[in-house]
Specification:
Elements: E1 5-11, H1 13-31, E2 37-42, H2 46-53, E3 61-70, E4 76-84, E5 94-102, H3 106-116, E6 122-130, E7 143-147, E8 153-154, E9 170-175
Parallel strand pairs: 2-3, 2-5, 5-6, 6-7
Antiparallel strand pairs: 1-9, 3-4, 8-9
Helix pairs in contact: 1-2
Bound molecules: 1-O-pyrophosphono-5-O-phosphono-alpha-D-ribofuranose (PRP).
């Protein structure tokens, strides 16, 4: 039987906007005199980062790293790979990692360890969503948008097999096969 994706909205655009505003205020309070290095994890964080930095009206630097832990389906492969590395110097910088979702924690845990070895002055994590029910490794989150249930979510940058990143809302993706969510 072929998979027929069905979506329902978990967080509407206006709820996301209010949450990004709240996070921006928290980050501004802590970083406005620090010239931080914001590192977005591609691809999922691109939309959140773009909206967030427009609300941060102080000097900062934006950098990206591309990591991958998921295959083509809904399950993590469990292996994290650096697909595209950093260009900026991390040593001595106040680094803030920007993530779309912390799920098992494998991706962020890998990246935080990777960055810590580069001796930043400080290292913190901001994630728009957190799914603590799926955690495999402990991750300390400094700035959190939403806690989400143990459902597969898509939209606002988050994909399923590279689809649905462009949705303006965060939605739950359901499988129409009976009993499968
Ligand atoms: C997704 C998401 C996070 C990671 C979270 O990335 O963007 O980076 O999984 O999962 P984890 O906590 O179980 O590691 P993915 O590897 O699917 O790549 P993408 O950002 O390009 O979608």
């Amino acid at each position: 039987m072929s998979f027929q994706p069905k979506l329902h909205i978990l967080f509407r655009q206006d709820e996301i906007e209010a949450t990004v505003k709240r996070l921006a205020a928290e980050i501004k309070e802590d970083y406005h005199v620090k010239y931080p290095l914001l590192i977005g994890i591609l691809k999922g964080s691109f939309m959140f980062l773009a909206d967030l930095v427009r609300l941060l009206d102080f000097p900062l630097e934006v950098e990206f790293i591309r990591l991958s832990s998921y295959g083509q389906g809904r399950q993590s492969s469990g292996r994290v790979k650096v697909v595209q590395g950093l260009c900026s110097e991390v040593r001595g910088r106040d680094v803030l990692v920007i993530e779309d979702i912390v799920d098992t924690g494998l991706t962020t845990s890998f990246l935080l360890d990777y960055l810590r070895k580069k001796k930043p002055a400080s290292l913190r994590l901001c994630t728009l969503t957190d799914k603590p029910s799926r955690r495999q490794v402990s991750v300390s989150i400094d700035y959190l948008g939403f806690t989400v249930p143990n459902k597969f979510i898509v939209g606002y940058g988050i994909d399923w097999s590279q689809k649905f990143r462009n949705l303006p809302d965060i939605c739950v993706l359901e499988d129409e096969r009976p009993g499968v969510v």
